[in-house]
Specification:
Elements (H helix, E strand, L loop, with lengths): L1 H17 L6 H25 L8 H22 L19 H11 L5 H16 L6 H27 L5 H25 L17 H9 L4 H27 L3 H5 L11 H12 L4 H14 L1 H17 L1 H5 L8 H4 L1 H17 L13 H4 L4 H29 L6 H28 L16 H28 L2 H32 L1 H9 L7
Helix pairs in contact: 2-5, 2-20, 3-8, 5-6, 6-8, 6-9, 7-13, 8-9, 11-12, 12-18, 13-16, 13-18, 16-18, 16-19, 18-19, 19-20, 19-21, 20-21
Amino acid sequence: MNQIRAILWAQWRSMRNFYPRGGSVLATGVIIIWYGLWMVGAAAIARALAEPAITDELHTAFPIAFFFVFVYWQVVPLLVAATGASLDLKKLQGYPIPTRQLFIVEVLLRATASLEMFVVLLGASAGILLNPRLAKTGLIAILLYVVFNLYLALGLRDLLGRLLSRRRIREIVLLILFLGIASIQFIAFRTRQLGRTFDPVGGIVSLPVWPWTAAARTAQNEAALKSFGILAAWCLVAGAFGLWQFSRSLSFDADAANATVLRRSGRPGLLERFYRFPALVFADPLGALVEKDVRFLARSPRFRMVFFMGFTFGLVVWLPTAFGRPGGAHSFFATNYLTMVSLYSLLLLSEVCLWNSFGFDRSAAQIYFLAPLPFSKVLIGKNLCAAIFISLEIAIVTIACVLLRMPIDMRRLGEALAVVVVTSIFQFAAGNLMSVREARGVNPDSSMRHNTTGRTQAFMLLVQPLAFLPAAFAFLARFAFDSEAAFFGVLAFDAIVGIIVYRIALESAVEFASREKERFLTALAAGAGPIS
């Protein structure tokens, strides 16, 4: 336990030296609101479960509820490419710490990826305690179910982390994940299209051999001994799987796995021509800045994963919402399907190339202050690089919609492009400010995002809706006046306002970077301790 205390103490000192001492009222407020809403939901669950009359209905509802807890815990972090906090094993391998102690710490850190589910299960536990018709062994079942999810989440995170660190295999893994999620969405889409309710209890999901069903039946005292044994067996399997994957990750060398033999080619290939394209369009030094960022982002596993998710997961995420219901082809989401998918892609890309645009540069950002070029050109270059990838993302999404025979025409394509352009202008303005005020180094070799600062998350939760608000006004204008002219008129006005806001934000970001240069560079170069 001394080693665990030493790790936690080193992490506390690192955070105390790295982050502002005074904290952030904004971040605290957003965190209170977010988890406050989950606590309200947990209280509602506790109150519902406390009613003795509801006990008869739990036979169907409980397995569904536990299944969706499992899905949220294991799948949602993958959909947003975020895994919460984790040990930085490279910083700990030089110390004589037993693997099992590191494994215990890593298991506990898995809780940061899905704290919401802890709150929900805490509410369920309170309801079981208050309901006289429910067995108190349900508390043990919930505890075991939490342990099972923690073990499994750790094992899957380490397994995917190693697979996503290998070239070529990374794309295959992402494709398999996409096909798996797409198949679930397609089943829900087809059943809702045919007017039937998607009932997982009636299928494979409700089989008693699954851990969520075993946890639900143990909580209801239905074949409690058998169900408890099944759940305990799942915990042992998940624990062995998690320890196995964690031990393999300790000895895994991502640099060696990605090592390739360089081959000289007489003629530049298609990818090399894409890299050189910005330098042909923009004069130096702007062209060189854009080309450098395009090359780096295209080679970063973190960026490539988010870019891939934008035109794959985005297509299936909105599919049941847009076309799942009978007669849904004329709904708002169906008629604006391309626009919704494009905005989702923009939302994903903003995290890696807008809100922390200097994160991949890290200590190399010093060159921007040493080279004889205005800092404003650096920010504009990063915005142009982001615009190139956003345009490429939208083009791929459009081609995919055409191939899938989605309702796409030139008018809808024009609407999607106009909405994305206007929204991007406001995103660029806010991102420039955020990139210099809340700069932080990012590991480009990590495909999954770990925890971010509280102020960064608070800023994104508050500003992201504001950036999408101009597009919402355009849709409201079209609904109110039933006119495409009103829609594009509002977007044109929003674009003018956005350009003004962008210029003001750019000047403010340049001024802050010049005034707080040391703080800016220190934040990018600083490490985050043994827990990243």
